[in-house]
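Bit of a strange request maybe. I'm writing a small parser for C-alpha cell strings and I need a real example to test against, not something I typed by hand. Could someone generate the C-alpha cells for this chain?
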Amino acid sequence: MGPCSEDTPLCWASWLLGFSSLLLSVCSIGVKSSGAHGAGVQDSGVHVPLKDIQGGSVLFHVIKEPGTKLEEISWGFGPDVNYTVILRVHNGSEETPTWVCFEDKYKHRVHVPNMTSLRIENLTRGDSGQYWARAILTGGMESNQIFYLTVYEPVPLPQILVQSLSITPRWCSIILECRAAGVTEDLNVTWESKGLPRELEQKGTPGPAPNSWTLAVNLPLHQPSASLTCVVSNSEDQKTVTSALGEACAHDSHGQAIAGPLRAILGTIVAVLLILGAGLCLWKTLGGR
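Reply from user aminoacidic:
Good idea to test on real output. This should exercise your parser:
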C-alpha cells in the first residue's frame, strides 16, 4: 500500500490536510477573480468623433447604462496609455469640479452642464485631439468613453480675379482665378455656374484647393446674365463668391466697340494733316518761283 501502510490514521490525516489546503486555494482564487471583475474597468466601446470650427464650442456627453448611477467622472486629454486628467466631477458637485491639470488653459472655457456632460467654448486648433471620460459607477465599476475632436479654421472669404479676357464677334473667352488666403490644406473648391448653356455648365464635386484655383470659360455674348460661383469649404464651414461674367465681357466688348471708331477718326485726322502739310509745302514751292 506504499509508504502510508505502516500508519494508516496518520496517512489519512495527511491526505485530508492536503485536500483541504487545495480546496481553500481554489476558493481563494475564485473569490479574488470575482472581486477583480466587480471592481474592473469596462470600456464601453463608444468612440465619438466630433468636429467644429475655431471659436466655436463642443459638447462631450457620456452615455451610461440605464439604471446605473454615476458617483464620479474624470475628464482627460491625450493618447490611450498616457492621457492627463483635466478635472474630476463628483455627484452633487457639478458646479465645483476639482481641477487636476490644465486649469489655466481650460478654466474660463470649460463648463459642466450636468454629471454626464462637459462643454468647451472658444475652441482653438490646439484643442484638437483625443479626450477621455472615465466614469465611476455605483458598486465600483468603471466605464471609459473616448472622444476624437477636430477643430478646423473658419473658411476664409474667397475672391475671384480675372486672369485673362479675349473677345471675338460671338464669344467671350475668360480665365478666372478663385483665391483663398491663409491655410488651405483642409479646403475644397467647387465652381458652380448659372445662366450658361447646358453644355457649358460648370459644376462638380469638391476638389483640394491650392492657394488659387483657375477656370477657363467660353461665354456666348448673347448670355449677358451668366455667372460663376466659387464655393470654398471644409467639413464645418463654407464661403462663396460670385462673378457676373456678362459684366466683364460687356466691359471689354464696349472697349473694342469704342476703339474701332476711335481708330478710324484718328486715321482720318492724320490723313487730313498729311494732305494739308503736303499742300502747304507745294504752295510754298510754287510761291517761291
